[in-house]
Amino acid sequence: MSYAYLFKYIIIGDTGVGKSCLLLQFTDKRFQPVHDLTIGVEFGARMITIDGKQIKLQIWDTAGQEAFRSITRSYYRGAAGALLVYDITRRETFNHLTTWLEDARQHSNSNMVIMLIGNKSDLDARREVKREEGEAFAREHGLVFMETSAKTAANVEEAFINTAKEIYEKIQEGVFDINNEANGIKIGPSHSPTIPGGISGPGGQGSAQGGGCC
Amino acid sequence: MDSSPRDAVRVKVKKCEIRHRPEYRKFSVDPQITTIEVLQSLLIKAFDIKGEFTVSYRAVDEYGAEAYYFIVSDWDLDAAFFDASEPYLYLQVNLKPFGETSECESDWEQNIQHVATRPELGFAYKTPRLPGIIMNKMEKTLNLVQRAFGNLSEELNQASIQPPREPLTDAEFRKFLDPIGQIIQSKELRAVIYFGGIEPSLRKVVWKHILNVYPDGMSGLERMDYMKRKAQEYINLRDAWKNLMQNGQNIGDLGYVTSMVRKDVLRTDRHHKFYGGSDDNQNTASLFNILTTYALNHPSVSYCQGMSDLASPLLVTMRDEAQAYICLCALMKRLQENFMLNGIAMTTKFAHLSEGLQYYDPEFYAYLKLHQADDLLFCYRWLLLEMKREFALDEAMRMLEVLWASLPAVPPPNGELSLVEVKFPPSSPPPSPNIKQIRENAYTKVCALRRQSSSASVNSIKKRNINTDDPLTENDTGELERSISHQQSKPESECLDVIKNRKNTPPEKCFSLDSIPSLNPKKLMTTLLDFDQKLGSSGGLDQQVKTQASKCARVVRNLNEFLNFTSLNKSRVIPSNDSEVPIKMSTDDSALHNNHDESNSPDDLTDFLPMTTSITRELRLELESLDRQVFGPSPPVKDQQCDCNISKQEHEIIESEAETELPKCSPATDVFVWENPLHTLQNKQNPATPDEQVELEYDGEIIEDQNGVKSVTPIRLFKQTARYDDVSDSDGTDSWPQNSAATDSVTPPVVQEQCEEVTELTNLIPVGISDDEQQLGTDSLPPPSEFGGGNPFLMFLCITLLLQHRDYVIRNQMDYNEMAMHFDKMVRRHNVTKVLNQARRLFASYLKRHANKSEYVNS
Fold this sequence. Notes:
- The structure holds two protein chains of two kinds.
- Helix content of chain A is about 35%, strand content about 25%.
- By secondary structure, chain A is of the alpha/beta class.
- In chain A, α5 links the parallel β5 and β6.
- The radius of gyration of chain A is 17 Å and the shape is globular.
- In chain B, the strands form two sheets. A six-stranded mixed β-sheet of chain B has the order 4-3-5-1-2-6.
- Residues about 95-110, about 115-145, about 145-155, about 430-530 and about 535-780 of chain B have low confidence and may be disordered.
């Protein structure tokens, strides 16, 4: 499958905030209320299109529990984007954002784009963290902010795609060194997304189409 | 599973493609000769497919739900034929690889077009028309290699889907009990379970034995009393925190633990009927109680994600909260180190897995390396949960009992299995308005202690360990030297200090245990190989017992003894290998016991030992930019070692609590099990050097399928795995005629045949004279007591999964992510029998090599 760029994402945040569900909603367009708890890290991928270019998002969904942080940290390296997720119905997951952020900043490359996500927006009745608080936190730390619902899919596409857009802009601005894979960005096997690369031959076009999401 | 071969399977296929209407076809295939390649070409023909596609089959899973499973290998296809082909095998073809299979609606019956097929001609379709699927000769070869791996010799399919032995029955189990109900042949019992598992109805009884719940030598009555007492102890422990909760004191750690555990039990095995239904399922509540009690009473471990997966099968089997708790305590004695925040035990396991894979499949390892996947992080779950989640729960239970049975018996020391580390709530002033404060303080103290001792232990490591390898490099033996020098030039890594300090310290300081009289390392090796022998040899159980007793294998019940032992062993035989450091460190941890750091600040961790993998990865990336050579491992570094370090962990395994006991020699029955009593073998093969390992040998092999179609195929022999390949074609110096002769006696006639196979496999070890010590040590994997952190069989399970999927991975040129996704999708879908069979074969040949080695050293 050919792509112009590959971006590597990492999803972080406290346990139970819905990281795996966000990933599943984005990659598979479905919601699975009972999801295995993530051990270590799990993986997903999807193609998106930005500016007419095929971009492959390679997403690493990490376990939220502290015990896994020693392994989680090794994933920050080489991520171009991070979704930092909290649960709007659990205040403590919001309170822990600072720790997560420090951790992410400390272990990632400095240009990593971080999107703050308040998940479970469908559970407005049980809300413990106001939208404004999320916005304020994001402003204060220079993050992009969005409330999502992995259940209803609200804003899920946008969260992943907007993050990609920002990374893409940074590439255009020359902020990222795209030749250094440690930045979480890889140039596709074929520079031009219209020429199918690799072995797929006639399949190339089909798969590029199939992968498109928007 | 329907094991009777059928002539034809009727297949209905639906092709799904985004923005197209589904198309349907039906045809029949002969399951005996239809490989995945044949199937793919049929499908291409049937739908005139031009692009890449995936195939999945519909199955009704154990929970009654309909699910689609990808067919990515021949064994998937076999599984589909066996499991889901009545009356039709429903296939779904998706033109987008790994697309959303569920998106097509299941309107199966309409519009099916019949496709006339002659499966025999399937190969005719294998034309260059397969754009997405590489169908060159090499691919076929790989496929056949995989088959050869999965199916030993001519018993192409049958062998791999049959366990070597039937599960242990009640009647058989009774043979292992004397008139008062004492277990009389615990090793043989383990051997029987290792080969065949346990009948599900008997698990409740036997699991407690193989999980080391009981002290040695208990009679049936004593065991009942013991369990009664232990169960009451659990009830008290549980009620302690339950009362606090009911009094509204669900705060502090209690609050933290309960909220964490609750969240996780609600997503643990919920699709299994035992935990199914609504969230107030009583079993889920029991699981919650068990985990909460454990966490609160084991502050150095507390609760970590993954424990619910470990506890779940125990509860399913015990059907009793207290008994499951007791089993969990026994299990966690061995596994708690996996959950330590410093990640050291896990690092060791990764390192060993990596070593093992390099050894058994250097080509695939090179592939992984090329894709920067040689950190094997996608195997994290395998290692942490000991593969529990890779199989459907009922199958996982079979795998677990086999795995537990592969381990040496380690009865709880001091005649008692401990159910608490620090009792909760810690005994402190009586409840008062300040109770919250007090409790928190108490717990905080424990945590603080943990943190301190943890850093203390790290410091002590820094000071005491000279051991060479640091965890950073262990993933990559070949590049050890380079890595080390690299590290030295890379001061930003926090590990450097550790490394340097270690290097500067003389070995003697590691532990001052060298003065203990040494033991003969050879006595250590009481192996499963032994089990093989026993199973296959001797006229009966009684005789075995005698033999066993007369062996008088040495019991290592003491740390010092053990350390000395392995240190001797190590210094004489085994080259310093990368595993030592992490082992040693985890030892330090475990020795301190309370040192486990559960700091809330993530930064604490980086102070000592960042996870190996991230650093290795980085180092490696840089190294590779310097040195593009993929296949050129540099010679292993083996001059530095601190032998005494190694064994602490073993000690941990053997006896985690009796660290102060004096050395003693006990009867063979409670021995550390890695011993092969038949010391007559010698390894004929000269162990290859790592460099040699990379080379592949090709050998012609005739593959005959069940239709009698023969094809001569170059089969690659992974050099030196030697293994059953060699064994089966027998370097037939069968040095143990007595064993083969006696094969029949132990196992029931029904399973005789399989048993013979097993015995044969393990008996037909090539006999020869080993070369000098150096060579002996050069290429070898760590010995059984160390490999996989003391669980070598787990390593072989992991290696088996990798081997079984390597073809698919390579064929599809999967990158890191795709590979990881592939294995994620295989969760609960691996075939337990095939995996166990292959893992047992690998393990048997590995044990043999090690038995030979130890024999050599001692002769």
